[in-house]
Structure formats: C-alpha cells, structure tokens
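Deliverable D5.2: sample structural annotation.
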Amino acid sequence: MAFHLRSISLPSRPRASEAEVEQEMLSLEASISSSTTITTMCDGLRRLGDIYNGVEEILGLPSNQVAKMLDGEMECSLELLDLCNTMQEIFVEMKAIIQELQVALRKGDGAAAQAKIQSYSRLAKKHFLKTTKKATSAGCRMVTLFTKAREISVSLLESSVHLLSKEIDIPKQSLLSKAFHKKKAVVCEEEQLQALECSIGELENGTGHLFRKLVQIRVSLLNILSS
C-alpha cells in the first residue's frame, strides 16, 4: 500500500502530514462509494488503522492550544470504542449461528435451519449503528481529522452489517427448497456459508485492528491532556 505515514518526518512537516491524512480519508471514502463489498469493508478497516497511525503521530507534536481543543474528543473516542466492541461481539454471534446452520443442513433439519436463518437476520438488523456525537471546535484542524475519521469508521461498520444481512438472503432462497432434496445442493450451500463465515471472521479481525488503534489514540489523548 502506498500510504506510509511513518516514513514522513512529522515534526518538520506537520501540515503536509495532515494533508496526507485528509487525502487518504478522501481516497478511502471514494473506494467505499465505488465498491460496496465485504472485501472493500475489510480493506477499509485496515486503511483506517493507517489513518489513525497518522493522527497519532500528529498528536505527538507539541501544541497546548490543540490539546485544549481535543478535550471533547475523549467522550467521542470512548463511544467509538464501544461501537467496535459491540461489533466484535456481533461478528462472534454471527459466526456461531452460521456454524449451527451448517450442522442443521447436514442433518436435514429444516426447522432448525429456518430458525438459525431468522436468528441471523434479526441479529444483523437489530444492531445497525447510530452516528456518534461530534466533537467540534472552530478552527482546529486536528478535531476535524478526528471527526472525519470517526464518521468513516461508523459508516464502515454500518455498511459491514448491512452487507452481511444481505449475504444471508443469497442462500436463504434455496436453503429450504433445495438443500433437503439433493445432497449436491447441501454441499453447495455449505460452501457458501463457509465463505460467509470467513468473511465475517475477516471483518471481526479488521474491527479488532481498528479497536486497538483507537485504544492507542485514547492513551495518547490522555497523555496530552494530563501533561
């Protein structure tokens, strides 16, 4: 990936670094808009980690004025951490349901399969995220970076759940009508479900990566505000 914030000497080029972070955010938004797939979401979560690396480096620059303006970011960062934690729990539940659904298919238990599909759908639809509060401070570019990064993070997580809710609709149409009549169909559906399980796992890993970056950012904020 061409985006390497850590190769730049931030103390001597703080403005250029901020511009680079902003450019990467624009690039990420464009990527998400042009291709809404699970692969795009996974890549987006990883790229967000790079963006937050850049933000953390900029935070290391001495600026008492910026430190005061970032005070409101503490609450917002905690909200985003909570969202990431909730999403990780959802992904774990989804994987468990998919595994149980595969067992039901192998046993030919139509009622159990239907119940698992409904559980999955309810879980996906129940946890759509709401936009977190915005920490605003006129004239502070650093706060703007935080706000934009947070908005992209929430959008990615929302889109991920939405995509997963649609994925179950693909096999659902044939699961109960075909899977219990032809062994080949059962194998086919299991392969689809295994692929879906892998996708959920990738999203879980991407969200975990973002969560760890957010923890680092929060520690940096605490250090700045307490100094």
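Annotation notes: The longest helix spans residues 183-226. Confidence is low (pLDDT under 50) at residues 1-16, 170-175.
The annotation will be released with the project's public dataset once the embargo ends.
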